[in-house]
Amino acid sequence: MTKNEIVVDGEKYVLASSVKGFEPAKKVKGLKYVIARTYSAGVFAGYLKVIKGKEAMLLNARRIWYWSGAASLSQLAVDGTSKPKECKFPTEVPEVLLTEVIEVLPVSEKARKSIQEVPEWKA
């Protein structure tokens, strides 16, 4: 096993950006942009690479740490945010393996643009 690999429940995962020829999800057609809510890790928005049981792999994902300008995650997924400067979405990560996923919402194109245009929140 290399430093770019992890094993979860006996299955090996490789950091996508370490694979020769890897292209970020924004350039890969056919991946759906979603909001995924987990039991304990919070909420993330990104491109759904795979979902298996309660595990999901998102590419080019942002944690939705705090949002404003949408009454719920459902509205955020449909309309995006009307108050992007009040949202706290940290930097995008190339990939994230989420466990204990309890909700996955498809995101409209309008909402995807809104989420991705929220300024990066830094401490």
- What is the CATH T-level topology? SH3 type barrels
Major sheet: arrangement of strands? 6-5-4-3-7
Radius of gyration: 15 Å
Secondary-structure element order, as H and E?
EEEEEHEEH
Distance between the termini: 34 Å
Q: So how many helices?
A: 2
Task: Give the biggest beta sheet.
Answer: 5 strands, antiparallel
Low-confidence stretches: 21-28
* CATH classification, class level: Mainly Beta
Q: Strand fraction band?
A: 35-45%
Can you walk through the features of this model?
It is a single chain. By secondary structure, the chain is mainly beta. The protein has a single domain (5-17, 32-116), classed as SH3 type barrels. The chain has two helices and seven strands, in the order βββββαββα. The protein has helices at 73-79, 109-116; strands at residues 5-8, 11-14, 32-38, 43-52, 55-63, 93-98, 101-106. The strands form two sheets. The chain has a five-stranded antiparallel β-sheet, covered by helices on one side. The protein has a two-stranded antiparallel ribbon with strand order 1-2. The model is unreliable at 21-28 (pLDDT under 50).
Q: What attributes characterize this protein structure?
A:
mainly beta, SH3 type barrels, two-stranded antiparallel sheet, globular, single chain, 12% helix, 123 residues, 37% strand
Topology diagram in text:
Elements: E1 5-8, E2 11-14, E3 32-38, E4 43-52, E5 55-63, H1 73-79, E6 93-98, E7 101-106, H2 109-116
Antiparallel strand pairs: 1-2, 3-4, 3-7, 4-5, 5-6
